[in-house]
Design goal:
There is one protein chain. This protein has about 500 residues and is an alpha+beta fold. The chain has 4 domains: about 1-75, no CATH class; about 90-225, Sandwich (Immunoglobulin-like); about 240-320; about 325-495, no CATH class. Helices cover about 60% and strands about 10% of the residues. It has helices at about 1-20, 35-50, 60-70, 75-85, 210-225, 240-255, 255-265, 265-290, 290-320, 325-350, 360-375, 380-405, 415-440, 445-470, 475-495, and strands at about 95-100, 115-120, 125, 130, 135-140, 150, 165, 175-180, 185-190, 200-205. The strands form 2 sheets. It has a 6-stranded mixed sheet with strand order 3-2-1-5-8-7. A 4-stranded mixed sheet has the order 4-10-9-6, with helices on one face. A hairpin with a 7-residue loop joins strand 9 (about 185-190) and strand 10. Helix 12 packs across helix 13 (about 415-440) and helix 14 runs antiparallel to helix 15 (about 475-495). The longest helix is centred in the middle third of the chain and has 29 residues, at about 290-320. The protein is globular. It starts with a helix and ends with a helix.
């Protein structure tokens, strides 16, 4: 019976994809003969295979689904409505149930983005009003592909992440809390990190505020922006801001995301990535000529193109099947990095006569890694990734506790200034290693990432200068440099949400 329910649910997805008036182009294959039905068949084929491996013997199952969907589109809404009626809704007015179902015409983004949408307390894309000073719980149960989060973007899809007063987002099952404050914008959205246009609006008001007046004000601002009457002030580019942005761009170009583009074999994505590199190289030339405005524009365009290249292969991967092999390779590389960091920190603690603040259950950790690699060897990369993700969560959690527990101390006795310098260098590097882990776990907003990258770049520069000074024998100045570098890494961590 459960098997039949899943097949039926997939039929509904195909139906709604076929009925959508304007399917999201990101979910369409390249080519003039694309159609929502064709794209849905490709997505559903993979999911049917996961439900029943026997369907791989023939494509007839999907064809039968399509034929039935085309013949009974009027049943789609009835099926969805029946499933809504089964929901057990929360009685607390500050608690909302978030589920996902195929969209009907009642969803505010019907025909846009993903053919599946979020329901709030059983209502598709329902608007919700929250009051500053109160706390709200969103009980999420949306399915493994749909990570729930709060955003300033009306489309979602991972952009515009909002984190202030938020606990537990980026989950498909669990409780997420929102505590709006005076700093919270008047309008937020609840959306899916992985797909477009699944959720709805969140209006944020003060106690006693007129909601309708707020809506009119927001609508007026939107009209003004769309007609060009309201423009954000442009920040003047400086030598320092351009250098910081270029430092960040260099990190992005060497990131796992860029490497995936290079290894994808996708000619279009590679061309976009090469254009990104050209823009960033041109930005460096403009910087040398002191043309900071041009340089900033070029590096921003380069970063935009890197994102576009990454999304090009992500979209292709979503349509054809997730590239589990690429994910596996990335997880293995990440685990090697985290494992090395963990071992170095254990050795540092021993060298300083300290007991590590947290320790890894190496038996359980190694068992997960061994199991994951064995599954990958047999071609089960999806299963391997589940094991390696669990292992990664284990080691990053321990690393976070270990590095966060390190505090500035001045009561240690050192035999020589060189020994004290080496201690401060070790501390600085420990905090520097924590930054990417914090970013992965806390998922800060794009604006926060810009600030984080600025402090990290400054810390790296100061650390490098400190090493140069130490090499000349001036350990007093080198110690001060390392302490300053550590301070910058700590500021980056605070912005990421690690206090």
């Amino acid at each position: 019976m459960e098997h039949k329910k899943k097949i039926l649910s997939l039929m509904v997805v195909v139906a709604l994809s076929g009925c959508a008036s304007a399917p999201d182009q990101q979910l369409m294959n390249k080519g003039d003969d694309s159609s929502a039905i064709t794209q849905s068949k490709e997505i559903i084929s993979e999911q049917l295979l996961a439900i029943d491996p026997k369907v791989s013997e023939s494509q007839k199952t999907v064809d039968v689904v399509e034929d039935k969907v085309k013949s009974v589109p009027e049943k789609v809404t009835a099926i969805v409505e029946a499933k809504k009626a089964e929901l057990v809704l929360p009685t607390d007015p500050n608690t909302f149930l978030i589920t996902s179902e195929p969209k009907t015409s009642k969803h505010p983004a019907f025909g846009q983005g993903m053919p599946i949408g979020f329901l709030l307390n059983g209502v598709e894309g329902q608007e919700v009003v929250v009051t500053r000073g109160d706390t709200y719980t969103f009980k999420v149960d949306t399915g493994v592909q749909h990570d729930f989060y709060f955003t300033t973007s009306p489309k979602g899809w991972g952009s515009g992440t909002y984190t202030d007063g938020v606990e537990g987002q980026f989950v498909f099952k669990g409780d997420v809390k929102l505590s709006p404050s005076s700093a919270t914008p008047d309008l937020l959205y609840y959306q899916c990190r992985n797909h477009k246009n699944m959720g709805g609006k969140i209006f944020v008001i003060d106690k006693g505020e007129d909601l309708e007046a707020l809506k009119r004000s927001l609508a007026a601002k939107e009209r003004a922006l769309s007609t060009g009457k309201s423009k954000r002030p442009k920040m003047a580019a400086t030598e320092s801001s351009v250098k910081n942005k270029l430092s960040y761009a260099s990190m992005v170009l060497s990131s796992a995301s860029a490497k995936r583009v290079e290894e994808s074999g996708n000619a279009e994505a590679m061309a976009i990535l090469n254009d990104a590199r050209s823009n960033i190289a041109n930005a460096k030339t403009s910087l040398e000529s002191s043309d900071y405005e041009t340089a900033m524009g070029q590096v921003n365009e380069g970063l935009r193109l890197v994102t576009a290249a990454s999304r090009a292969i992500s979209t292709e991967s979503h349509m054809s099947a997730v590239n589990h092999k690429a994910q596996y390779d990335e997880l293995v590389n990440s685990l090697n990095t985290y494992d090395g960091s963990y071992k170095r920190n254990v050795e540092r603690a021993k060298k300083n006569g300290e007991k590590p603040s947290s320790s890894l259950d190496e038996g359980a950790y190694n068992a997960l890694v061994t199991s994951g690699k064995a599954k990958a060897k047999n071609g089960d990369y999806a299963g391997a990734n589940k094991d390696l993700n669990k292992a990664q969560n284990m080691i990053t959690s321990v690393l976070t506790e270990m590095l966060h527990a390190q505090t500035i101390t001045y009561d240690k006795s050192f035999d020589t200034p060189k020994e004290e310098y080496e201690y401060e260098l070790s501390r600085a590097e420990s905090y520097e290693e924590l930054v990417p882990i914090a970013i992965e776990q806390k998922k800060p907003s794009q604006r926060a990432l810009g600030l984080i990258d600025g402090f990290v770049a400054k810390g790296v520069r100061i650390k490098s200068e400190g090493k140069d000074v130490a090499a000349k024998g001036d350990y007093k100045m080198a110690i001060m440099a390392m302490q300053a570098a550590t301070s910058n890494f700590q500021r980056a961590l605070r912005i990421a949400g690690v206090n």
